[in-house]
């Protein structure tokens, strides 16, 4: 099971709004200045993701929860999202190249095949969207932020 910690933004009627911040590729060290994976992550357009998860237990904003998703579901999702458009590009470009024997048509076929592959991936993703195996689940709930009270010792 793939695990990640998230922060509660809000909780209402059994639905928690959570925020996950993207981690470096390996997340195994704290070498921030010399890590190429961290630099590449920061170049991306979105460094945090918001999602909703059903949970009956009331949560407070700022509370940490551990999310989990099955590896098989994650791998099948990645296969769908990345490979379907790639197959479309290869098949579309190859088919028009074979039929019309021109590079310009091969490029056009690759673009059209990629768009069709992306549309197919989107249709299948919508079908998988409501399946329980593809939804994250809350594995652990951390203490609320107000539970930590530091009182200095008086002398």
Model description:
It contains three helices and five strands; from the N terminus they run ββαββααβ. It has helices at 36-43, 71-100, 103-128, and strands at residues 2-12, 15-21, 48-54, 64-69, 137-141. The chain has a five-stranded antiparallel sheet. It is elongated and about 90 Å long.
Summarize the model shown:
The protein is 41% helix and 23% strand.
Total beta strand runs: 5
| Overall residue-averaged pLDDT value | 86
Q: Major sheet: size, sense and barrel closure?
A: 5 strands, antiparallel
Number of helices: 3
- Separation, N- and C-terminal Cα atoms: 49 Å
Classify the secondary structure makeup into a structural class. alpha+beta
Strand portion: 15-25%
Q: Reading side by side through the largest sheet, how are the strands ordered?
A: 3-2-1-4-5
- Based on CA atoms alone, the radius of gyration comes out at 22 Å
Helix-strand sequence: EEHEEHHE
Helix content class? 40-55%
Any low-confidence stretches, pLDDT <50, length ≥5? none
Shape: elongated
Write the layout of secondary structure elements.
Blueprint lengths: L1 E11 L2 E7 L14 H8 L4 E7 L9 E6 L1 H30 L2 H26 L8 E5 L14
Antiparallel strand pairs: 1-2, 1-4, 2-3, 4-5
Helix pairs in contact: 2-3
């Amino acid at each position: 099971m793939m695990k990640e910690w998230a922060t509660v933004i809000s909780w209402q009627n059994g639905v928690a709004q959570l925020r996950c911040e993207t981690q470096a590729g390996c997340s195994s060290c704290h070498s921030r200045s010399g890590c190429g994976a961290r630099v590449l992550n920061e170049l991306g357009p979105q460094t945090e993701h918001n999602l909703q998860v059903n949970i009956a237990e009331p949560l407070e904003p700022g509370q940490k929860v551990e999310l989990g998703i099955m590896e098989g579901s994650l791998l099948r999702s990645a296969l769908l999202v990345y490979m379907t458009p790639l197959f479309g590009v290869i098949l579309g470009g190859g088919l028009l190249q074979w039929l019309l024997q021109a590079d310009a048509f091969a490029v056009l076929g690759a673009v059209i095949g990629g768009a069709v592959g992306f549309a197919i991936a989107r249709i299948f993703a919508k079908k998988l969207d409501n399946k329980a195996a593809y939804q994250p689940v809350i594995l652990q709930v951390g203490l609320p932020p107000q539970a930590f009270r530091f009182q200095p010792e008086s002398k």
